[in-house]
Amino acid sequence: MRLLPLCLWFLNLLPLWIVVVFRDVRSILTHSSNVGSEWCGIIGCAAGVLFSFVVVCWCLSEKKNGKCYVLKSASELKALTVEALLMYVFPMVAFDFCRWAGLLEFLVFFVVVSLLCMQQRIITGNVVLALLGFRFYRCEFENSQELIVITRDNLAGDDGREISYVSLSNNDVVLARKKKR
Question: What global pTM score does this model have?
Answer without folding.
Answer: 0.74
